[in-house]
Amino acid sequence: MSSIYLNNLNPSERIALVEKLWDIQQGKCFITNEPIDLQLHISDLDIDHVIPSKLDGKDDPSNFALTFSSANRSKQASDLNLARILHAFSKIQENLKKKEDRSPNLDDILKLQGGAVYKIRFKLKEDKVSYSFSSLGRTEIISQDVYIDKLSGLKYFFAVFPIQYLHHDNIINPRAIGSNINKLVDEFYSGNPQLHVSLGWVDIEEENEAEIKIFDGQHKAAAQILLNTLNIPVRVFINPDRDKLILTNFRAGTTLRQVAFDKSVQRHLGNTLYWDRVTRYQEELKLEKDNFDFSERQLVSYFKGESRELKRYILDSVRDAITRHAENKLIEFVDMGGRAKEKPLSYSTIEKTFYPFFIYQDLLDTPISYKLEDGKNPRSLETEQIVRLMSIIAEELFIGKFDLELGTFKIENRIQNGENLPLDHVRAYRMVKEEILHNWLKFIGQIIQNHFISLGIPIDDKKLFQNEFSDVLWQIITNSIVNLSNLPLWKNNSLAVSVFGGKQNYQYWHSIFTTGNSTQGVKVLAEPINLMKLQQQ
After folding, report:
1. Which of 91, 166, 311, 438 is the most buried (most CB within 10 A)?
2. pTM beyond 0.70, yes or no
3. What per-residue confidence (pLDDT) applies to 266?
């Protein structure tokens, strides 16, 4: 909303106000906290209300702030105090992405405000737990009632803890904090109450200090901390069965759908549960920690009561290893939450194409340690080769070709409206639409299988990637992807309405690739896909 006060200022009065605000703000932008040079930046500065007029903010210098114009116009909230907080979080996201290629978690937010520093000593007697915050100079003894959950049998208490004593449990909850936290920050900033407390756990031993580990409600805790709340209410489980907490959190995000876990996070939790069972198997059979001379099937047979779940955990472990592999170049172009408009692939698409096509879906009878040191272990080979395939696709279609800033939002509509988009960008976007990728990845699988057959090598198509690929085969795979990407249809803007407009089903694109025509009879390819020609260099 415009300012009557500012509109009535003459140029010299406005400059004087700029200088006054610059001095009050110690020469920094109110939103970004970055230095302002009044000579270099004078044409790129805004004066704005800290509290908007529509929220009863005063229209006078006491409610004005000096900001960079770019920051003010792209701010995520009309209230500048809130905009400053949200900008600070976006900078954390940017820095972690640049330095460590990851998103922030609760630990990052805690440490930003001086949290996650201390352990704490507890005294547990009957139905009371006592402690003190002596590391902060607060020596008074605090006692809380201990309750027992009648269904689970777990003991717990409620308390408010300074953030210096809180730590993030990234095993039970590996979930990153995404931009959706902005809504929570806005909610709490508006004065609306937190409806659910965070959940934590602690191992209490009389002689030892312990960390309070937060494993649920991290977004709510992080939102409060970003708003400079330095004491957080927590429900703390005492000496819990940690496996039970991991499994409960896993089921909350999968079977029960109580937690909005991304699929990739679910797979990571499944991986954690799998290796927990491996460790338990070793301990209960009195095996050394480095002894993996047992198979997936033996492991599942041992834990008979959870055979279905354990098979799922094993497959989750493979998926997780591929997704988090340091050399997987495609993951940079995959949106893990499935909601962004910048990245061309969703994790859901990866789960419906690469993983069911190329990961062996049953249990292995070979020991987990089989040929592990030679790099020819079936699961390791499977993982490494799927990662290599994904990276080849990234190199040929995306790296240096797909512009993440241009993104995917309404690409076909923009083409229909005459916008001139880079052809390589459009091609990459089109080729990995789920129904299209589904079809041509199957061709790649057929090409790999045919290569082994041509050499007289019997092969189980369900275990395709557990067979070592030769350099010749990798060249054939690369040729096939390059030749597919050179098909004229990907860069044909006239197909934006008839073929690429809207989501089609798998059969629609199967018809195009195998006949040259769509199911409606539209001529799309000059000739059907020929797998032999596709492999030629």
Report:
1. 166
2. no
3. 59
